[in-house]
Every structure is written in C-alpha cells, then in structure tokens.
User: Fold this.
Amino acid sequence: MNCDAFRTSYREMLGASIRANDVRRSDWNDHLHACDECSDWYQEQQVRDRGADPEKFPCVHVAYHATYKCSQHDDPWECPDYILVYSDKFDEYGIPIRDGGPSKIDIAFCPWCGLKLPPSKRELWFETLAAMSYDDPWNQDIPEEFKSDQWWRRSADDT
Ligand SMILES: [Zn+2]
Ligand SMILES: [Zn+2]
Ligand SMILES: [Zn+2]
Assistant:
C-alpha cells in the first residue's frame, strides 16, 4: 500500500464495516507503522477528529497524546491508555504517575520527535494572579480565563 492509498482509505478504515482481520486492514496498519509521514498525518487527522486544533500544539505527537480521550475513563490517572497529560492553564506536559495521587513527571521535550516543548507557565500563573490580589488561587474564585489556556493565549496575541 502506498501513501496515497493509505490516506484515501483513512475514513473507511475507521468505520466498523472493516473487520480487524481484513487483509486491507492489516496492510493499512502495516503502512501506518512503517511510514513516519503517514503516521504523523494519521495523528493529525485524529486530533482534528477529536475537535482539537493541531496547530495549537508544538508538534503533532504531543497534540495526539494530549487530546486522547478514553471512552471509559475521563481521568488519565485511572487509565493506562493515557500516555501524556497536558495542563492547558499551565501549558505543561507530563507523564502521569499512577501511585494513587495526581502526580506526573514533567517533560521538556517531545518523547517522539525530541522537539523542545514550551517552558511551563505555572509560576507565571501564580505571579499573574498574585498581582491581581489572588494570593491563594486554589481556594479563591479566580477569573474564568485562568482556568484554561485563555489567560496566556490572549497575552501572547497582544505582543
Ligand atoms: Zn506513507
Ligand atoms: Zn480507559
Ligand atoms: Zn513530537
């Protein structure tokens, strides 16, 4: 199977009508694993299918893993299928540690392509809120934009 055939049959392969042991299905899977370009392309499609914008992430690999959603578990700490967790309010990537708490190992580079990831905005989040007299943000009713990536995306657009 070549790259064109792989990409044009993407929708069909996601459909339930193709059985797992179908010969074309296994050819398609072989190509997915053998071809780096199509693997990146596949991840980008998946991110879009999830309703997210791959352009908002440093690379397609972290976009793919950060937007992953298990159909049975919302909490990445409850499900081994989540490889990466992303905090949009801190712009922070990490690998979940399932020791019973919500801890993670922060990562500075994409584990798949080595791209340098943006530095965490966790300290800036606290500093910015402190400057607005929110000195205990976990227990205060902070502005809505600080609960997501809005606060730093907006200031990044201004500059
Ligand atoms: Zn290919
Ligand atoms: Zn799960
Ligand atoms: Zn990457």
Q: What stands out?
A: Helices lie at 3-8, 10-14, 23-34, 36-49, 60-66, 122-131, 150-158. The pocket of zinc ion (ligand 1) is lined by residues 3, 6, 31, 35, 37-38 (CB under 6 Å).
